[in-house]
Amino acid sequence: MPSRTGSHGRVGTGRSLPERGLLLLVVLVLLEGSVRPLGAASSPDTGRQEELDTRKTTERENYTKKAFPVLSLDYHHIHTPFEISLWVLLASLMKLGFHLIPRLSGIVPESCLLIVVGLLVGGLIKLAGEKVPPVLDSKLFFLCLLPPIILDAGYFLPIRPFMENLGTILMFAVVGTLWNAFFVGGLLYAVCQIQPGNYSDLHQLELLPCLLFASIISAVDPVAVLAVFEEIHINELLHILVFGESLLNDAVTVVLYHLFEEYSGAGTVTILDCVLGVISFLVVSLGGVLVGVIYGFLAAFTSRFTSHTRVIEPLFVFVYSYMAYLSAEMFHLSGIMSLIACGATMRPYVEANISHKSHTTIKYFLKMWSSVSETLIFIFLGVATVDGPHLWNWTFVTVTVILCLVSRVIGVVGLTYVINKFRIVKLTTKDQFIVAYGGLRGAIAFSLGFLLDKKHFPMREMFLTAIITVIFFTVFVQGMTIKPLVELLAVKKKQEAKRTINEEIHTQVRPLTSSHPHQIDVLLLLTRPFLYRCFHLLAVWWYFI
Amino acid sequence: MPSRTGSHGRVGTGRSLPERGLLLLVVLVLLEGSVRPLGAASSPDTGRQEELDTRKTTERENYTKKAFPVLSLDYHHIHTPFEISLWVLLASLMKLGFHLIPRLSGIVPESCLLIVVGLLVGGLIKLAGEKVPPVLDSKLFFLCLLPPIILDAGYFLPIRPFMENLGTILMFAVVGTLWNAFFVGGLLYAVCQIQPGNYSDLHQLELLPCLLFASIISAVDPVAVLAVFEEIHINELLHILVFGESLLNDAVTVVLYHLFEEYSGAGTVTILDCVLGVISFLVVSLGGVLVGVIYGFLAAFTSRFTSHTRVIEPLFVFVYSYMAYLSAEMFHLSGIMSLIACGATMRPYVEANISHKSHTTIKYFLKMWSSVSETLIFIFLGVATVDGPHLWNWTFVTVTVILCLVSRVIGVVGLTYVINKFRIVKLTTKDQFIVAYGGLRGAIAFSLGFLLDKKHFPMREMFLTAIITVIFFTVFVQGMTIKPLVELLAVKKKQEAKRTINEEIHTQVRPLTSSHPHQIDVLLLLTRPFLYRCFHLLAVWWYFI
């Protein structure tokens, strides 16, 4: 059935200014209204609860009969779900609001606007005198906000381009990230050492904390990359290179982080530790993929039996994927790689088994969830920035930003020189520029920094400030300028017209030809237009000859 | 696009026994596997956390360099989402499993089987020596498990039959529930008083706790009614009478519960309190509806602007509805009525504004969520039964069960006698029997009993045992026998063939003719078969003449 977007699009554009103003007013009122409960609820609850209990006991003991309360207010027992709903509603309304102001969303990427909104909300909460809630708490981020985005990416990952460029992607993800970490960490340590001892306390910063900081800051962030690249419609090759790198570097980040965090106490790292580190990297990455594949097959197997209970089909996709992620996290394996592997594994089988309505539900629900999650992450980045605590050190921050840029450029250029020897389709200078420029940092780096223990890392606040600065720099400066630069350099974009047909066939045909070569989808033949049918038959004929 | 159910249904029936066995094996393994973490995690965590912290501190103090851990297990930091996922997966697999055994699901309603599964899981957890987690914790039940079911019911509530029978429904919901509460409470108190003082401690039970208990046990439960009536395909009138009653009696239950709970301490209830009680009832019910309508209109208004962000359209429906429920709960108004009002209010406007894919997503996601929620509730009822604590008192329990049945029958017969004077379509004896027999109790009664404070209600355990017995009796005995009885009495069933066309037209035409009489849905005309088009044109023509 054709979507009703067209007819209602026409109705939408005829909407007058007062209505938009009214909507923005509603948004502002909600913002104000949300500040007070959000702030109020973050105040320590235990004290209030005890106070309530003692008051209740004294009331009962000397009971004076009072009138039956016809109306009473009890915010406490619903405050958690209420706050969560308010944040989600705020994120959704923001997303809605930006699309109503087309000029703004054309210039500034959505991620920047959302960070600004977060800064505003954080500022409002602070002005109201309340304590800012710890919104980018690592547990909340890694267990609730990140998985939907990664699952959406993994489930709809274009497998063919990903596999074709796997070698390149792995080179960038593994070697590139290692290079970034050691280059930035080493040079940062050197700069800190040459600082005069009595002038600043940078002199006390040892090598291993520097390397730990560098390993946090060197990984390209999938959320930021998705958010920015989504709007520039770059060609598929570059998109899959940068995005694939941002997904696969998770294993490297996990190992480096744990390695340096573990040994910052000891102060020394031996050759044995390095060898164990390499083994750990293999375990973390391959183990993560294995866990994902196991759950993927479980989901595929379960979907064979859902013909009588179509209603809960989407649930299996969500639950098995989430459990794959949690199981990988439980063993300190790479949760992101597990989730990607799970989504990519189950998809061809599940799609062949489930009903079309379940397919639509899964697709749209994943897109909805990941969209809201992404919006929330950027808003929370803004809120967390206001929260602090900050320790600004000009040298440290500027050197970090510069080193990040320099190491990224050198890394990409160097690796491309090596990679191009093995590639058929070489990466041009323009491609290298986009890959280097698209290496954005995001909330994963912040959450990892947030996880650091203050006791073992007294420089934690300085690290967090530097991380936030790098994130802001990449998201604002690089994020805002990448679109004009892409147009200026005339980089090949995604081919719009052909995309629809190609994508349609590739996403329909590939699962059929790879897993069930003899089951030609009759419904597909009947319901797609004649042109698609021709392409489909050609593709199948080509596959078999 | 035609659903693929047909073709895969044929593939499904050809499935061999070993495959089903393999699936059941997977289910059993998951069951076993789930018991240990579920039980282990319910053990007090605080002690373990402190232990871990002290151990970590001593480790750092006398740091002996150990090898880098290549693989480590850390269940603690993911245990909450992991357990939630396990429970959801268990519920889904159970639902799947029952439909694979058609003979069983034909005899025993799903709700009974699920309670049995819950009893098994609870028993396994206890056998493993772990503490059973407090699964039917009132907060979890009222804030997480109940809203999806009510929203699904409210959003898809057939408005016309509901409004046509509103008077009858309100009579049953308000007067019927009040009658039940006072009849059962009063007679229960009388029976307790005539018990010999030294024989049992029933003599100590005062009147107000009895009335409180009776008010908890007298409300018909929407979840149980939905679960059982879904399978018997009763005609629409009876369905809407019993189901509507189960929804609208929430206000009565809320007021009676708070009234008796508040004054059980004082021991006396004056005329003023009764008057305040009546006022409170009006405030609770109409206030709840008002809150729901406000949020409904907010959602309708927001949906006008979502033409550029189709992805997050379903989210607004969910978030606004949930916030309506929470806002009502915050003011101790009727959350259920708020949710029903919100869903029913927003639906015509939202459906006219959102895309078809969003519509499918909302519909299927609501059905999926409410289905899983319902399954979980029954499983948890079983688990909570195993958990206890129980205090079995033969007299109390048997008298309660008998009085519930007797008061229900007398109430329905008496009220129908009055109602039939005002109805055009009279309720026959068969109808009265089904209405009386379909008055099932469920988890809401249990959760309300669970909420009671042990200090003020020393008989709490006895109450809970009696509540569970009544629930089991209604769900098992009445639930299992209602289907054969319906067939025996040859009660009119839902008309299958006509239903599709009528429902289709009614659900498509009514919103159009009521809110946008001039916008005939062109797409509807083009995409439905010629027959539907004729009916549609006839209905529109009939509306206008």
List keywords for this structure.
mainly alpha, NHE-1-like (chains A, B), membrane (chains A, B), 0% strand, disordered N terminus, homodimer, palmitate (chains A, B)
Characterise the protein shown here.
The structure is a homodimer of 545-residue chains. Chain A is globular. Residues 1-15, 37-64 and 509-528 of chain A have low confidence and may be disordered. The first copy, chain A, contains 24 helices and no strands. Chain A has 545 residues and is mainly α. The two termini of chain A are 35 Å apart. Chain A is 76% helix and 0% strand. Chain A has helices at residues 5-13, 17-42, 45-61, 79-100, 102-107, 110-127, 138-155, 159-164, 166-194, 207-217, 222-232, 236-248, 250-263, 271-302, 313-330, 335-353, 356-387, 394-419, 429-437, 443-451, 460-488, 496-515, 522-527, 530-544. The interface between A and B is large, with 102 and 101 residues. Chains A, B: The chain crosses the membrane at residues 108-128, 140-157, 169-191, 266-299, 364-384, 396-420, 432-451, 463-486. Chains A, B: It is a multi-pass membrane protein. Chains A, B: Belongs to the monovalent cation:proton antiporter 1 (CPA1) transporter (TC 2.A.36) family. Chains A, B: GO terms for molecular function: calmodulin binding; potassium:proton antiporter activity; sodium:proton antiporter activity. Chains A, B: Residues 47-59 have a biased composition (Basic and acidic residues).
